[in-house]
Amino acid sequence: MSRAQRTYGERRQWQTPAGYGFAVDEPVAGHYRGKLRGGGVLVGIRIWHGPPLDPVTGEELDRSWRWQAEANGEPVDFDAIWPACADESITEQQYREYAAQQRWAQQHAPDSSFANPRQRHDPLTALLPF
């Protein structure tokens, strides 16, 4: 029997290989690489589960624990980050390098997309700050 004559139900079903993919509804604490916008630069992202931090003082608040995220040390909306960054795991050292790169750019090239990761990066017109 040729392939064209088989009904859809008779075709072989695809089997998921062991260890394939990840569960997006179960966040994993750690360090990741991602972008805060399309066409932006890569940033280091830290995800953790714990008490929320005061946005002004940085102290832990007496509130219920929740999933939280930081991009280069600055708080970002967790729902905007996860699971888009989930497949780009990095080390803590790489996360610190991304944060240091942004701090350097804020001092020496404040108009660059490296200083403001929410800004669109155009590699043809943008001057790299390093």
Description of the structure:
This protein is an alpha+beta fold and 130 residues long. It has a domain at 23-108. Helix content is 16%, strand content 18%. The chain is built from 2 helices and 4 strands; from the N terminus they run E-E-E-E-H-H. The protein has a 4-stranded antiparallel sheet. Strand 3 and strand 4 form a beta hairpin. The longest helix has 17 residues, at 92-108. The chain is flat. The protein starts with 29 loop residues before the first strand and ends in a 22-residue tail after the last helix.
Gap between N and C termini: 63 Å
Number of helices: 2
Mean pLDDT: 86
Order of helices and strands: EEEEHH
Overall helicity: 10-25%
* Contiguous runs where pLDDT drops below 50 for at least 5 residues: none
Widest sheet, order of strands: 1-2-3-4
What's the helix and strand layout?
Elements: E1 30-35, E2 42-50, E3 66-71, E4 74-76, H1 78-81, H2 92-108
Antiparallel strand pairs: 1-2, 2-3, 3-4
Short description:
This protein is 16% helix and 18% strand.
Key words describing this protein structure:
alpha+beta; 130 residues; four-stranded antiparallel beta sheet
